[in-house]
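Researcher: We plan to redesign the surface later, but first we want a full-length starting point. Tokens attached.
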């Protein structure tokens, strides 16, 4: 049975619980959420608090209410799955993408490490590095994002699938954990608004110069070292969700 702790307002904890299920794909587009009465019973909270949690999810555009039916997940458009969301998906489902989403790997090879990637991976510029390029699609075949991931070239021997242009169902972090024992303990994500380059516009099927969301992602292992550094470009008007807790000080 889920339980409420007293650090955050109960309705936010309930909303976070269902948001993470939606982001990880455990709850897919069109799935029904429990009623407010069921949530109230399961979480030992009031119906008003449960209704407030569902209202929070509606305000975020993750669900919609249908008279006579209830609250329904809606993620077909407007939701961007960030590196953090994919880490949650791996933990919850063992797969990096939600049901229906998939990636096409365009290339995977060893190359010389660019300077900015060398800084991110803490290796020497020009050293061997693995580069994987991919585009992610939804169930309808619409391109959602395109990205490149970089890994220390020494992993090519230990984890040879990284240099094969084939999908890895558990995701590259999960595969690296399997082959090396290095576990993703944290993800660091940066976002910025930008304009689509010629290359990314072609992958996303949009006009060059269109507004896009740029991201830099670092997967950090249990020793504080970067396992994977990635750069991605996603469509505009696809929301990324974060929560922040602030403590008042005198």
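Model: Full-length starting sequence:
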């Amino acid at each position: 049975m889920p339980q409420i702790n007293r650090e955050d307002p109960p309705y936010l904890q309930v909303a976070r619980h269902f948001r993470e299920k939606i982001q990880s794909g455990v709850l897919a587009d069109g799935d029904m959420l429990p009623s407010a009465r069921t949530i109230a019973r399961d979480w030992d909270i009031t119906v008003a608090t449960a209704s407030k949690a569902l209202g929070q999810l509606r305000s975020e555009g993750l669900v919609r209410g249908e008279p006579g039916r209830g609250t329904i997940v809606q993620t077909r458009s407007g939701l961007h799955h960030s590196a953090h969301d994919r880490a949650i998906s791996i933990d919850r489902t063992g797969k990096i993408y939600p049901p229906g989403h998939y990636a096409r790997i365009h290339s995977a090879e060893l190359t010389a490490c660019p300077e900015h990637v060398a800084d991110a991976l803490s290796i020497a510029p020009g050293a061997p590095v693995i580069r994987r390029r991919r585009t992610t699609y939804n169930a309808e075949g619409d391109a959602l994002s395109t990205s490149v991931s970089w890994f220390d070239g020494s992993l090519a021997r230990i984890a040879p699938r990284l240099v094969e242009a084939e999908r890895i169902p558990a995701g590259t972090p999960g595969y690296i954990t399997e082959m090396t024992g290095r576990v993703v303990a944290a993800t660091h994500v940066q976002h910025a608004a930008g304009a689509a380059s010629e290359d990314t516009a072609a992958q996303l099927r949009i006009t060059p110069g269109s507004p896009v969301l740029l991201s830099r992602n670092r997967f950090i292992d249990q020793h504080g070292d970067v396992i994977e550094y990635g750069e991605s470009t996603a469509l505009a008007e696809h929301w990324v969700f974060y929560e922040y807790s602030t403590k008042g000080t005198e």
